[in-house]
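Consider the following input, taken from an annotated entry for Acetoin utilization protein AcuC (Mumia zhuanghuii).
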Amino acid sequence: MDHGPGTASVVCDERLTGYNFGAAHPMAPIRVDLAMELAGELGVVGPDLRQVGAEPADDTLLATVHTPRYIEAVRAISADPSRPDPSTGIGTDDNPAFAGMHAASALIVGASVEAARRVWTGDSVHAINVCGGLHHAMPDRASGFCIYNDVAVAIRWLLDHGAQRVAYVDVDAHHGDGVQAVFYDDPRVLTVSLHETPQTLFPGTGLATEIGVGDAQGTAVNVALPPGTSDAGWLRAFHAVVPQVVREFKPDVLVTQQGCDSHMDDPLTNLMLSVDGQRASYLALRALAQEVCGGRWVAYGGGGYAVLDVVPRAWTHLMAIVAGRPIDPETPTPQAWRQRVADLKSGGSAPVRMTDGRSTSYRDWAQGYDPASWLDRQILATRNEIFPLWGLDPMP
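Applying the prediction step yields:
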């Protein structure tokens, strides 16, 4: 269902690309520039998706998730990157220190909280921060390219401002371990992560047996996908687990992380999705928000390291869906954007359409379980762990 003009927001500020680990690091800020440029040229950002700004999170807001000692350490490293504190996880190949790290990281948190605030106060039905989604950061240390956990802070903000139940769905190829860890014992937060199996990918967590503790048992849901899983398998897994659990949880708001490193061209992962499959996941999440929580949907970016060909197209589709005006996959990419990508490739070609030309059909779980399929065994493992806790039948 389309919604009227002015009821969706994208939080974006050119300062957000100051979160920069250096030219050799895979998480290049150019991916955000190219996504916003493509979305602008295709008319996605405009009356249906207002661009709004944000201010950095202060220490009090950061401390709702992160320890004061860690925040102080990040500030100190920002002032002198030549002396990182090894206990913080900063100064590694994954998380190199850089000048201004605290300010850049705090701004991403501020932008993510602003997106949550826009939705929770009713200013916007949907809101997105494509620079957000830094889901690996732990309360006392950096991890996996993530300094502060903007997603966890935004969820905490929602809880502190009246939300009774928040559902978080993470479709990044990597397990959303930091967000899960923060809320592992909190029954008010449902964390659902579909990711490549920890047998083959960082961070080495996210098994079906990770279900939460105490009163929160059943509120951590993990689907560990075999390497090589493509659109049909991924969508089969998503629809076999996510809608049923989210419906039972009955959240007040849906928060999602859309890392697009599940793409077949991503250099860091082993999943095989297309832009078309990723677009289908965004549509499914939007429909789920519409069904379970009155459309209240806060979306974030995340991983994605095919920075020229994949990330801009995937997140432009995401922004268009957030805006309530999905783009036809056959839409040509604008010539000016295509030329910029070609120039960045030193003469290489750029994608000419917003599609990879792949089908998004899949076999529904209700059509039968195949015990010979690694994927089906993983799906059933999750259903066996989680569904009985919600009064659901784990078998087809």
